[in-house]
Known about the structure:
The chain is mostly helical. Helix content is 45%, strand content 6%. The strands form four sheets. Strands 1-3 form a two-stranded antiparallel ribbon. The protein has a two-stranded antiparallel ribbon with strand order 2-5. It is globular and about 65 Å long. 48% of the residues are buried. InterPro entries: SusD-like_N, SusD_RagB_dom, TPR-like_helical_dom_sf. Residues 347-493 form the RagB/SusD domain. It holds the Pfam family SusD_RagB.
Amino acid sequence: MKVRIYILVCLVVGLAGCKKLLDVKPHSFSSDANYYENGSQILRAVNGAYGSLQELYTNDFWALTEMRSDNTNYQFDESDRGAQQREEIDEFLITSTNNYVNTIWQLLYRNIQQTNVIVDRADVVEFSDEGLKNRYLGEAKFLRALQYFHLVRLFGEVPLVVHEISDPEAAFSEGRASVDEVYAQIIADATFASDNLPEAYEDNEIGRATKGAALTLLGEVYLTRKDYQSAVSALNQVASMNYSLVPDYGDNFDPATKNNSESVFAIQYDAALQSEASNFIFMFGPRNAKVQLTGYNGNLGGSNIPTPSMVDAYEEGDLRKDESIAMFTDPSNSSFEEAEAFDGSIPFIKKFYHPPFLEDGRANENWPVYRYSHVLLMLAEASNELGVGDPHTYLNQVRERASLDPLSGLSKDLFRDAVHHEQRVELAFENHRWFQLLRSGEAIEVMTEHGNEEKGRLSRLSDASYNIQAFKLLFPIPEREVRLNGFEQTQGW
C-alpha cells in the first residue's frame, strides 16, 4: 500500500524560504531545482542541514530521551497549559496526539529531506576535487544516519525515505520499513561517512562531522544491534585517533572550553547570533527561579528536573555530581511538591548553566552528542559482552577522571551492571539514558521501579501513571501521520 508522506510534502514548499540555520558559516537551505550548480552551493546546503540539528536539540528532543527515563521529570504547575504533554511522556500516559512527539517526528523528517536533497543533487554537480564532493556527501549521510538512528529507536518501523521528494505526486513510499531495513540504511550511510570524512578540520570548520564521529555512530549502532565484534572494531578505531579525556569534567560543557579534545561531535551554538543561540537552561531551570538563577526576567521551563534517584546515583566523592547538578533554594519552592525530597530545594541541570547570559536569554552552550568518554564506556560494554581484552581498562579511565577508585576482577554480569551505571552518571542529561535502557533490555524493570518511587512521593500521580508495558517502549506514530498516510498504528497504541 502506498502512503503519502505528508510532512515531507509540506517541507518541499517551505524549505526554500527557511532562514534560521546554522552559521558555520550558515546559509539558508534551498530545494530549488536551479540552485545546485557548484560546490559552493552544495556546501551551503550542508551547512543548512547542520543548522536543522540546532532546532531538534532545542525543541523537545530531551523530553523523549531524558524525561522519558528515570533521570529527570518535570516541575508541576497547574497553571502551565503544556503540562499535560510532559505528563504523558514522563508518566507513560502518552497519546498519539502528543505535541512533543509530533514535533520530533516532523523535525527528524524535515532534516532527512534536507540531506536527501544534498545527496541527490551533489551527484550532478561538477567538482574539481572529487574528494571534497565525497566529504560533503559524507557529512550529509552522517546526518541522515543520525536522524534515522533516532527515529528507529523512538518509533520502531518508520518510513525509509532516501531520495528527495520534489513534488506531491512523488511523495509516496511503500509504507513503513522494517527495523532491519532502517538499520541497514543507517550502517550504509555511516560507513560511507567514515570512509570519506577527515579525522579533523581547520579552526574555521571545527564542529563538522568527522571520521571519528561517523565511527562512533557506527559503534553505537552495532552495540544496539548486539553486533559486539563490529562495535569493538569501530570504537577501537576512534580510540586510536587524537581524542582524550579533558582533566576537568566540567570543561565538556563550559562554553569557554567547547570543542575540546574530548568532543567527538557536538551541536554548535553561538549566543552572539540570536538564531544560533542555545536555550537549555531556560527550558530546564526551575519555574520559579527567573532572576534569582539566571539574571533573565523570563519564565523558566521547569523541565528535565533531576529525579531523586538520579541525584543519589553518584558515588561518594564523584566529582561529576557537582558539575552536573545544582540546587535552587528559595522560599517559593514550598509551592512545589518536587522540593520535598530535597529539603526544600529544587535540583536543576548545572551542565547547561554558565552565566552571565545576554539580556534576551541567549546562551552559548553546545550540546554534546558524542564525547570520548562515551566511546570508552561503549568500548567497555562491547568488550565485556564479547569477552575480549580487559574492559575494566576503558571503564577505569572514566572513573579516574571522576576521582573514583578503579574496579577490577568483576564478573561479566557484575561488570555489565557497573558500566551501565557509569554510563548513567557520566552521560547524565545528554540524551542517552532512555536509549541505554532500551539497548540493555532494562527499560521495563527500571522504569517500573522508578514509577513506584515517584508515586510514593508525588501525590499528583494517578494509578495509571507508569503502567509500563512492552508496547510503550516505542512512541506512537503521530496521529496526523496515521490519518493522512493510512498507517497502521504501532501495535498496542
